[in-house]
Amino acid sequence: xxxxxxxxxxSVLIDIKAADKTDLLTQMGRYLGSVYDLKDSDxxxxxxxxxxxxxxxxxxxxxxxxxxRLDSIDRVYLIAARTAGDTEFNAIDEQPVRLVFLMISPANxxxxxxxxxSILSRIMSYEDIRKNLLEAPDAGSFLNILIAGEDxxxx
Length: 155
Prior knowledge:
By secondary structure, the protein is of the alpha/beta class.
């Protein structure tokens, strides 16, 4: 499984404005539901917020990977966003977040879920990728940077 097989240009949000983490995750969860024509965006948002309440998904370096599992879906869905400004996420390094990758996956699938988390963590560990994503002029460029990073750094 590769990011480039599950992310499309219309699943990337550039310079999203949000009042706080809850607002950001709510907007992203609803957008994910609409982009993929999923029936219950409210359930997606509730699951993402509940998971985030258990433990922050801010992994450091300005990145968060909020995720949840749902019984009602049959595959992994992923969207990406760059925020317009810093968002406090209670990240492990206590730094605000600007790059967010929101993922939902079927409740009974652990392999794909874990693999996507691993791929994102690996790609985002490279400073050049993070810098380029923060400077990407549009969603297409953002997606191309991610794909190039995946091709270069993930075997």
